[in-house]
Amino acid sequence: MKNQTTLIIAEAGVNHNGDIKLGLQLIDAAKEAGADAVKFQTFSADALVSKNAPKAAYQKQNTSNAESQYEMLKKLELTEEAHHILKLHCDAVGIQFLSTPFDGVSADFLLKQLKLKTIKIASGEIATAPLLLQIARANPEVILSTGMASLGEIEQALAVLAFGYLNLNEKPSVAAFMQAYYSEAGQEKLKEKVSLLHCTSDYPADFNSVNLRAMDTLKSAFGLSVGYSDHTQGIAIPVAAVARGACIIEKHFTLDRSMPGPDHKASLEPIELKNMVTAIREVEVALGRSLKIPTQKELDTKAVARKSLVAVKTIKSGEGFTAENIALQRPGNGISPMLYWEYLNRVACRDYQVGELIEA
To answer: Where in the chain is the domain with CATH 3.20.20.70?
Structure first.
């Protein structure tokens, strides 16, 4: 995936709390903030989690301890009809609709009914090989989050995707996946279709766990576009990630951090999201083109801020220039101080008054 500017994904996730009206308001807020895309999560609690699965620590802190993870997620499901409404609203206001599927039925719905051209794969699904294979066989672009994953696990996931993209007829196996991954055609497909997101799967993530330099490692190891999915508080880290070369930024947001739900407390509010987008766009402009040349405004300043050879005593024609009768002073539109020694003892070709620029 190649973007001239950073793709900014406003992660609504489950911050709609199962309410379609909140979902629509989140879309409007993401658009108002200037985000490029707004992302939801598509899942069936019955397919995603067993009824006795424990909650994550952050989920326990932010939701009722009395309910199970299944009960929590069941309340956060979106119906297929709700997805259609949200997608249509995104189309109407002019923002890209994205979603993360957590099971095969959900992936099929996003790809075949909503006809999404890009699928975001969550960090938790990076080892779910059947889901990865199903998605790749539909040939969408993939944004793959890599939280909790080692380089080896990321390579395995990419191998499954490569196998799926190539639509090979042979039986899926680890050996077949790796053969597809190391093939020239497989590598070309991955470069064409897949972007990786560095991510720390903690909510909120401490700054000392972020490790933005891992983006460099991902790019070096896999040769793919690399972005960053942020779970820290505030906007400093995603902005820094763009300065380090992230081509995609994903950030959770909510209408109100005080709302009940597992993800609200680690999310930006709309004005903060807007500030993040603005800061990222400013950084993009500031990054420039890598050429080290003076700007036109610098050239104007250069004449004022630099120095030239200047007469500090009256000098007669035929008299030699010395350290006593010339000095280095502003402005800088005369002879460069770099030639100072070249002019010592050189003979003046005309008379100079104090303050006049020495001429060649």
So the answer is: 7-287
At the topology level of CATH, where does 7-287 sit? TIM Barrel (3.20.20)
Helix (H, G, I), strand (E, B) or coil at 248: strand
Q: Hey, what are 306's tokens?
A: 């630099």
DSSP summary character for residue 53? P
d(CA 295, CA 274): 30
Question: Can you tell me the distance from the alpha carbon of 273 to that of 250, in angstroms, rounded to the nearest whole number?
Answer: 11
Q: Could you say which DSSP state residue 49 is in?
A: -
More confident call, 146 vs 263:
146
Which tokens in the block code for residue 191?
A: 């470069």
**pLDDT of 145 over the 80 cut:** yes
Cα 239 from Cα 282, distance rounded (Å): 10
Each residue's pLDDT tens digit, 228-260: 999 999 999 999 999 999 999 999 999 999 998
| Distance of alpha carbon 314 from the chain centroid | 62
Task: Please check the confidence at residue 1 and state whether its pLDDT lies above 50.
Answer: no
Average pLDDT, the chain: 95
- pLDDT, mean of residues 207-225: 98
Select the CATH number that applies to the domain covering 296-343 from these four: 3.90.180.10, 3.90.1210.10, 3.40.190.150, 3.40.140.10.
3.90.1210.10
Return the number of other C-beta atoms located less than 10 Å from residue 360's C-beta.
8
Chain region(s) in the chain for CATH 3.90.1210.10: 296-343
Q: Whole-prediction pTM value? A: 0.90
Q: Give the type of residue at 355.
A: G
Q: What is the distance between the alpha carbons of residues 94 and 18, in angstroms, rounded to a whole number? A: 23
Q: How confident is the model at residue 194 (pLDDT cuts 50, 70, 90)?
A: very high
Query: Helices 80-93 and 20-33, interaxial angle, to 10°?
Result: 30
Question: CA 221, CA 151: separation in Å to the nearest integer?
Answer: 8
